[in-house]
Structure formats: C-alpha cells, structure tokens
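Recall the central idea of this unit: under ordinary conditions, the amino acid sequence of a chain determines the structure it adopts. In this exercise we apply that idea directly, starting from the sequence alone.
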Amino acid sequence: MRIISGLHKGRKLLAPKKLPVRPTTDMAKEALFNILNNRYYFDEITVLDLFSGTGNIAYEFASRGTENILAVDDNFGCIKFIRQTSESLDMPIEAVRSDVFRFLENNTKQFTIIFADPPYDFDQNLFEQIPELVFKNNLLEESGLLIIEHSKHTDLSNINNFSFTKSYGGNAFSFFE
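Accordingly, the structure predicted from this sequence is:
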C-alpha cells in the first residue's frame, strides 16, 4: 500500500501478511480523495475510520494534514500495526480495538467524515446497519459524510440518507449525507 499525497507522499507501507485485510486499491483511494479534496480542508476535519484493517485510509488523511483521526477495528493485529505505523510516522491516529457495531452504538462523538470498509461478503442487513447507527446516534457533523466501501456488485442505494455511488474497478464507494 502507498500513501498517495501529502507529507508522506509516495511512502510504501508493508503490512504483515497474516492480517485479515483487503486494502483499498491506490486507484480507488486516489479517486475517493479527489472527491473529498473538493469538499473539505483536511486540516479542519475529524475522521472516523471503521473496519480500519491496515489503516490505509487513516494514513492518507493524516498525510494530508488531518489532526483528529480515530481508527476502529476488532482485530488485535490490525490495531497493533496501525499504532506502530502511526507512531513511527508521527501521525495523529488513535487506534481502538472494538466491534464496529458496538462502537457505533456507544460512541457520542461527532465526525466530519466516517469511512467504513467492511468485508465485501457482508450480508445486506449488516451494510444497512452502518448508516442506520451513524444517523440514529447523530455521529456526523452537519456537513458530514458517511462513505461505505463495497464491491461494485453491492447496491446500497435503497438505504436512508443515500446520496450517490462511485465505482472504480471492482470497488465502489457509497456516500450518505
């Protein structure tokens, strides 16, 4: 995985092979950040990265100047890797080991951007629970955005607060406002 832009532009990070992850491709990540770059000043936002895996998305936000990033994953190895990497690169990422659904149910802090990259083989009802919990618990700031990464074969357009989907290769991002 590679950091696309910002302070650590071009830096390659190698995650341990044993982690149960599927990092967002560089092409899809670059396209996503082009969309976000037109909406936000990265140094003025707060970010919640759900199902963080390797921390790929959190590192990109940090490299671009975001100072308040919370990464959540239930895998100990993933959280350990994120903590080690963010510390070695002096990035302001707090990594928390938690079940994402439990975290969303209990968290009270609001975020500008909530990015979720759940397993692509999730049942439709699990995908639907993510925006349901985010909006029920008022976790987005007024100008906030929830982004769910999923397979291009998954359709989330029938979920409340859906705005639009962008597809890149086999990946898709659904945006909720």
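The CA atoms of residues 55 and 82 lie 6 Å apart.
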